[in-house]
Amino acid sequence: MRNFILFAFLAGATYLAAQSGPAPAEGTAPAPRKKGGFKRPERPGIKEPGVQSPMADIKPDAVFPVPGVPDWTVVTDDAVWVSNKPKGTVHRMDTRSNTVTANIDVGKQPCSGLAAGFGSIWVPLCGDKALARVSIKDNKLETTIPVGPANTEGGLATSKDAVWMTSDMAGVLSRISPKTNKVEAEIKVPKGSVSCVFGDNAIWVVSNEESVITRVDAKKNKVTDTIPVGPNPRFVTFGAGSIWTLNQGDGTISRVDAKTRKVVATIPAGIPGGGGEISYGEGHVWVTVFQIPITKIDASTNKVVRQWIGAGGDAIRYGHGSVWLSNLREQNVWRLSPPK
Question: Are 314 and 71 in contact (CB under 8 A)?
């Protein structure tokens, strides 16, 4: 019996060792893994000559210390705002003095984007499953609305008369009135819809699960089009008459013409995997992910023209003639003249 037990133990150990693969060589660090044990995908970027440069080549015009995890940003007339999930705060960064001028408590775990409109900053709260409204004038929390974001990673938008946010992974887009601070409509959209953007009098909703963009008429609260894009889009921006999605499945960028409502370009960028963000400004699309904090795409050619490799990034925005890069792990935000 002892011999049988010993044999079974040795056989089981051999099987487990085979399943886990060979051990790393002595002095070799194991491959980095994401939450859940999945290996972080390689991000080769674009290897064409002259495209890639080290992040060390970039010198920021200003550095804003934000202890915690500075993440999502939004631009207003004289400021850029950044959320801080573990601190439960939003920080106001003055664009004239290049200093943090306000730290505002908003609630538990601000997440999934920021939006500006109607004299306010709108802050999804994952911890409270709610939406916070912050006064731009007073730097104070005005109210908290009992509707939360569909996912921790996404985005919301403002149109001419409403705030829009996906609020259920089953596929719900909520329209919130800034006059009453209440949900005034719920529109059925594809399941797995996590972010949206306003452009050309419509709300464009991205489904990470269905790999589509859905166009919603902002006046009629009605779905008009569903457009297949690249695999697993999550983040979205609007510019140059187009909707641009960051596709996490293969690291491409899809460009959808707002008038024809068709994909007019699929741009290889070599940045697959989770996280990241996308923004438009100065005739270019700006994308960030870990390992490749800045990717610059020329909207006139639909081509990646530059990438910067190294530490930093994971949230990006263009405004006030600058690129704003949230460096989560470094606990700061960079303001950069658009790198050439």
Answer: yes
CA–CA dist 134, 336 (Å, integer): 26
Model confidence, pTM: 0.88
| Pairwise CA distance, residues 73 & 232, whole Å | 22
Distances (CA, A) of 151 to 85, 110, 295: 14, 12, 25
What is the C-alpha separation between 91 and 82, in angstroms, rounded? 5
**Burial class (CB within 10 angstroms; exposed 0-12, middle 13-18, buried 19+) of 3:** exposed
The contacts of residue 158 (CB under 8 Å, 6+ apart) are 115, 116, 117, 118, 122, 164, 198
CATH number at residue 313: 2.130.10.10
Confidence of residue 37 (pLDDT cuts 50, 70, 90): very low
Residue with tokens 């085979």, as numbered in its chain: 18
235 and 206 Cβ atoms separated by less than 8 Å:
yes
The conformation of residue 292, written as its DSSP 8-state character, comes to: E
pLDDT in tens, 78-93: 999 999 999 999 999 9
For 84, the domain range is 45-336
Please report whether residue 76 resides in a domain.
yes
Q: What's the number of domains the chain is made of?
A: 1
Evaluate if residue 32 carries a pLDDT over 50: no
36 domain-assigned: no
Classified as helix, coil or strand, 138 is coil
Cβ distance 221 to 234 under 8 Å?
no
What ranges make up the beta strands (E) of 189-302? 193-199, 202-207, 212-217, 222-228, 233-239, 242-247, 252-257, 262-268, 277-281, 284-289, 291-298
Beta strands 322-327 and 157-158 are unpaired
Residue linked to tokens 């049988």: 4
Is 314 in contact with 288 (CB distance < 8 Å)? Answer: yes
Burial 216-252 (b: 16+ CB within 10 A, else e): bebeeeebeeebebbebbbbbbbbeebbbbbbbebbb
- The answer to whether residue 6 sits within a structural domain is no
